[in-house]
Amino acid sequence: MLDNPVKLTNFKLLLSETVSMGEKSFEQAKLMSQHNRSEAEQWQKYLNYLALFGVEGWLTQRIPELPINRESINFLNVSYLKLGNFRVCVIATENVLDEVITIPQSSIKNPELAAHFYIAVEVLEEAEEIIIRGFLRYDELQNYCHQVNLLEYYQIPLEKFDLELNHLILYCHYVEPSAILPVIKSNFWEKTTKLSQWVQGVFDEGWLTLESFISPEANLALSTRNVTTGIKRGKLIDLGMQLGRNNLALLVNITEEAENKLGVLIQLHPTHGERYLPANLQLSLLSKSGKVLQEVESRAQDNYIQLKHFKGEVGVYFSISVKILNLSIVENFVL
Amino acid sequence: MGTSSRYWNIWRINLQNEKVGYKSYLVPPAQEFVAKEVVNQTGDTQAALLSYFHGKNSAEARVRAQAGLCLRCYISNPILKACQKIDNLFGGDKSFTYRDLLSFVLNDDGKTLVILDSDRKTQLVLNDNNQVQPITYKFFSVKVLQTFKSDSHSRMSLDNWTYLQTKQNPELKDFLSEFGFQHLSDWALLNRTRPKQLERFSLLHRHLVEVFHIVYRRDRVQQRQAGIGKCPDPNNTQLQEMIKHLQERGVIINATLDLIKGLKEVARILRQYDIWSSREPLEVYDPDAKSYTPRGDLPTDFLNELELEQREILDLLHSSLKSALCEAINKEIHERISTLEKSKKYSPLAKQFIPGLQLYYEKGLSLKEIAPILGMTSWDQTRRILNPGEFLTKVRDFCVQQVVKRMLELAIEKGLTKIPPEPDYLKTLAEEVETFVDEEIFKEAAEEIRAGKNRSMDSLYAQQLCIALKNTHQCV
């Protein structure tokens, strides 16, 4: 024991998992990252594709027996592959010196974007290489995310990632996909509230009539002109300790519109007899992929805040996030 | 539970050890101190040592110094590990290794008795006559202990504190600012800059980076020349466009030369290690336990108490590891050659693969030296064709898979796991196998690849590889 008191050398610290990138990958990444709205978006997409192709090449070599297919999803800093019955989310970054990997919340929490494995990839654009920095299983990541506050992005310490890519190969060989990512939606995922059912009078638990919120002294009413019609329900939102007993009420008003569309108005009100919302409270509308479509922030003395009225076809997913400081809550909806 | 031997073994630089450049030394006074003063006490060894070191129990100077020595041994480990980790995090073909970092931080001699004066600010040497005198050469390890707040509530672990302090060592940071990004051009460095890095920059500098991105990075995607990775200097058209964008932002720069100068100045600042690294403790705060959970990647005591049944299995497999190694080497040689043969770019050089690896392992030549001998055009080309590191990684991974497969079969036979195994069970099993095969074979093999000049390739892996290369060469 004394001869070798401490396990010191991690093999993977000495030799990183590096993949050289060929011309073809660059050419393809260029073509596929065109037509983006901003330069920053284009650059990130370009990096995403390089990371994706690098991982694809690595997997083809290491797990030749499983079919690999690219998925078309590519947003923020992630892209996806299907590997046999497993789904792989590739996270692209250009720098790991800060020892943090940033993952969009939706790529973990949105059931349609969740993957079995999350692979962190450092793209060395100039050196024409990628370094696969490690990976996490969905269940490991989920456990970790339970411990930390909810943010729009998860900042996962690099050290949480498994350096041994070999383990990924072993999982693919021996483990049931459902042992890592349950097929049936677990309770952890926030339920997606189906707004089209409201029209038929079906409401999920937690969505209460407005009367149940209103106390005489509370200034709680959907008082704007355009919301006299339609179906209105509200849900209590608890953002945790920081706000004291200051709960919030998320109010949703639905109206039936032409062409199989629904109109939605979202408001955020204080409850418990409070007159004002806390300042700097952000109410955001997010697309299915987690992109912010609309955002409004409370000022010092706002009685309530609301998002601009919007319409969408039945079946469209969106999320509402309520955020203050580093606390946030996301509610998922489908029209 | 026994006391960790980390308290009486110190890691020090050792240039004789050409493979890794450091070595663990037994420190008898520290060992004696732990045996005499600490082992019989109940409670936490580290807390006891810290309280002795800080003279809390009115310990005499010698006792304080000896307790300090134990702690200095203990933290030599995370210091070393931090250097290796930084080396790893830089990635790419950087121009330094962790060995260059060791001299800044792993400078404790493991002998000199040092105490702190009452305000904890000054290091004092304790001589043989129990007299104190000012220190001439400050040990980094003592400095780490000096600043460690052992008594504050919800403190971070000493391991993590040491890791953080190592990253913040001024000499080490200066070195990294000079050499860390040498392999990156100014333009590549600007390309990879994000708002997070610009937080402490002036508004002007931020504008410069933003317009650089708008123009240069946009074109980089479109105009990347095949095979030439290096970012070219921005051309005149690009510079003019950047100037225009700057004007829209109210920044007037007239001459392209001035713009280049400004961009280069930003790049110079960006070469500072601090801008990219994190100053935050990366331990995770666990609100339930009201403390930080230790980082998984910092050193832990060697797991040498495998469950008996598994040890039995390991013994059984010990003998078969060598055959797995041979199989893996042969498989990889054939795969590499066939991949090269299929490659448009490298197929003419496929037949050079075996002679190349032979020069590398038998003659101990570097890739740079091998290139002209085999008619390859550059070091980079040689590296991509031979890639001894990737070869080794694949052989190791294949070995691990083989051994895990055998162990799983046995575990299933013995009813130790269900079928299919749980992910966590598989992971633990694989980690044990990895620890085992790395100790037996691959740690040494990786170290000899990473060693600098005058290395000798004489690990078990190198020997097996040479035999296999010779056999294959004769067959071909």
Describe the protein.
The complex is a heterodimer of chains A (335) and B (476). Chain A is α+β, with helices and mostly antiparallel strands and 335 residues long. In chain A, 21% of the residues lie in helices and 35% in strands. In chain A, helix 2 (23-32) crosses helix 3 (39-62). With 476 residues, chain B is mainly α. Chain B has a 3-stranded antiparallel beta sheet with strand order 3-4-5. At the A-B interface, helix 1, strand 1, helix 2, helix 3 and strand 7 of A face helix 3, helix 10, helix 18 and helix 19 of B.
Question: Keywords, please?
Answer:
heterodimer; A: 335 residues; alpha+beta; Immunoglobulin-like; 2 domains; six-stranded mixed sheet; five-stranded mixed sheet; 8 helices; 18 strands; disordered N terminus; B: 476 residues; mainly alpha; 3 domains; three-stranded antiparallel sheet; two-stranded antiparallel sheet
Order of strands in the sheet with the most strands of chain B? Answer: 3-4-5
How many strands of chain B? 7
- The tally of domains of chain A stands at 2
Largest sheet of chain B: 3 strands, antiparallel
- Fraction of helical residues of chain A: 10-25%
Assign an overall shape of chain B: globular
Distance between the amino and carboxyl termini of chain B? 57 Å
Strand/helix succession of chain A: HEHHEEEEHEEHEHHEHEEEEEEEEE
Work out the count of structural domains of chain B.
3
Helical/strand content category of chain A: alpha+beta
What strand line-up does the widest sheet of chain A have?
A: 1-7-6-4-3-2
Classify the beta-strand content of chain A into a percent band. 25-35%
The general outline of chain A is: elongated
Overall pLDDT score of chain A: 82
Largest sheet of chain A: 6 strands, mixed
For the termini of chain A, the CA-CA separation is: 64 Å
* Oligomeric state of this protein: heterodimer
Task: Report the mean per-residue pLDDT of chain B as an integer.
Answer: 86
Most extensive contact: A-B, 68 and 88 residues
- What is the string of helix and strand elements of chain B? EEHHHHEEEHHHHHHHHHEEHHHHHHH
* Gyration radius of chain A, in Å: 23 Å
